[in-house]
Amino acid sequence: MQALLAFENAPPFTAPLRFFLTAPLFGVLAGLLVAFEGADLFASRWSPGALAATHLITVGFMLQIMLGALIQILPVVAGANLKRPLLVARLVHVGLSTGALLLAVGFLFELPAFLGGAAALLGVTVLFFLAATAAALAGVPSTSPTIRGIKLALVGLFCVVGLGIAMALALAGAWSLSLPELADLHAGWGLGGWAAVLLAALAYVVVPMFQLTPAYPARSSWWFPVAMLLMLAVWSVALLFEQSVPARLAQFGAALLGIAFAMQTMRLQAKRRRARPDATYRYWQFGLIASVLALVMLSVVAWWPEAGELPGWSLLFGILLVAGGFLPFMTGMLYKIVPFLSWMHLQNYGQARIPAPAMNKILAEPGMWRQMLAYFLALALLLAAVFFPARLACPAGLVFAVANGWLGWNLLGAIKRYRSHFADITLKLATS
Amino acid sequence: MTHPKTPHVVDARYMEPPGPFVETMEMLDRLKMGEKMLLLLFLEPHPLYKVLRQNGHAYETELLPDGTYEILITR
Asked: Which of A31, A371, A406, B1 is least buried, going by the fewest C-beta atoms within 10 A?
């Protein structure tokens, strides 16, 4: 009976699930785009293919999962209940997915109207999401580093989307802006102010819970999100007043903060109480190492800006941080969250009379491990393709598409088993 | 395990969900009215708070420097 009582805050399973199942499709699209475009995509970070693939991943995959996870987790970690979560999920999911596709098409075929349309749609969608979450969080005190982190991450989301809209309108011809510097700042807010701050805020809860590690120390957890946003604010003001030294110092500060968070997580993982490493643990370990390498590159550029002009530097940094860091973190978490939510909904449906199957019966470990190895191969090929694009771009893209398709397949398998157990429980409840 | 605040302690810091919730509710069932129990966790349990409020239990939460949340619950 008690287990049922904790359930009433949870949104319907389909609310977050639609995001989790759509994200891998964008991963597949990004991989196919890399394969199709081949060496041209690796010519520069500004190539149409590179911009399209980047946004398929950052908006179509990452933002998709992060918004879906927030809809699920806000009641649990902040006691903040979205009003009509299923309606919010439906609208945000459609706006986000359509906007990501429009954006990628706009970049790939250099169509200003598509870029403008994508900016408008994504802007409205994210503003709607921010309004819904702000209403849920109104009056919720920041009693934990996680709540404070989520609130600050939402500020970061507002900034990254605002900058993105400004740039899309500039590309569409409406405004004249200095795009390269703004693009760096847009990426900084997106990956630092939004993704890293949200990741840390959620990691404070999910790393100890799912990986059985000690907790993150309270003091650094309170200050990491604040310090990261402060660095981005300094960077933004410095750019506004065309001051390159403070901008570079802020980039360096943001990189150091990221490295410190990654090292702290590694230290906690080393003290975990789960003896056997599972796929989530390995994904996180891998993501942490790749992130540290990427952030060391960012630190080098902060002191020696010319390094950023070296052939392949920017692409290598982007692949390491996004495909090597953030995607493994998110995939690792999906491999815990989807079976856990399946278990929780089945447990509730069984009314404590019919127990739910264990999480590893819903999503088995061997399937996750094989997918993970495919993903690591894809990443190795992508990194190598920066140096040998003519030979490796196509296989790298194809393996990346396969690994993401495999992720989607694994998650679909979990949902299939969830539905089968759901039907079993229905039968047992009817006959008991 | 005992604690200066109360002898009734659920140390759920390395427990996988839903263990912390179930063990807390079971211990609350065993306590007499007015007795206190302490729950140790690495996260703030908002769904549990809601259940505690609904069932009329008072609680106080303190975040320790090592990241442990001490939740003192009165039956």
From this structure: B1
